[in-house]
Amino acid sequence: TLLLSQIGPLHYAQQRNHLQRDVTMKGLYFQQSSTDEEITFVFQERENLPVTEDNFVKLQVKACALSQINTKLLAEMKMKKDLFPVGREIAGIVLDVGSKVSFFQPDDEVVGILPLDSEDPGLCEVIRVHEHYLVHKPEKVTWTEAAGSIRDGVRAYTALHYLSHLSPGKSVLIMDGASAFGTIAIQLAHHRGAKVISTACSLEDKQCLERFRPPIARVIDVSNGKVHVAESCLEETGGLGVDIVLDAGVRLYSKDDEPAVKLQLLPHKHDIITLLGVGGHWVTTEEDLQLDPPDSHCLFLKGATLAFLNDEVWNLSNVQQGKYL
């Protein structure tokens, strides 16, 4: 994450008055080449326009997280622009609100994710954003923590609450638990009273996961490629299989046929189906997942469900959602 500014309380009023005036400031954008192979970052001057839209909020950005730019999705959405805003996970202080804003008022501390089609970059001193993309920031959470965790927090909550209906006593396999998404998912699962199993891709990740409190039921070290994830999960659950699987990608083919970008540490799709229990939920991030008829039949016999975790669906405006769906 990148911390843009921290203003002491003695200077806040003066700074706020300055930001309320119409001034010219710079925002960070990226520009793709005609071949879409090269990305150039540029600063673009933009006017600090007053809030005119009814449901929009003017926000002083205090912290902005720099996450990966999904150029493939932008192309699929046919979002052709000369310049694309950089930085979408933001935390800051409300400066002004539109006439129909009902959730916020000036001086509120908020955090949110800018929509994919936002005109304003998060890497700017002042931005405008629709109130529906913001929530109140908890008082004890710092600016950088809020901006840095909001995206993976929403992803983990969506996967566990909406897509797999997590409840106390369920068993959950969280792949690559030491990742940003994995660590938040583990904490949420523990909070709901679930039994957590996780995989580690290195010795350092394994040591990190073993320090979790409450402890993880089993940490499966897949770094050497010799441990069978399905066997370990079935052993841990007494042969019943796990209730919920959150993957971090899967292999679709044999090791010899898999592209180089597919790390051998990823489990095969057949392993996931094997370790899934009756009535289980498989939440995948593998956008190109292909299931053969025997795979589908096995899921049918287990009464299992398959859900795709695409966090960007929730970050699109209503107009863009219509194009996407």
UniProtKB/TrEMBL annotation:
Tree of life domain: Eukaryota
Domain Enoyl reductase (ER): 34-325
Listed InterPro entries: ADH-like_N, CRYZL1, ER, GroES-like_sf, NAD(P)-bd_dom_sf
Pfam family, one: ADH_N
Identification of the protein by name: Crystallin zeta like 1
Gene3D superfamilies xref list: Medium-chain alcohol dehydrogenases, catalytic domain (3.90.180.10)
GO molecular function, one term: oxidoreductase activity
Gene: CRYZL1
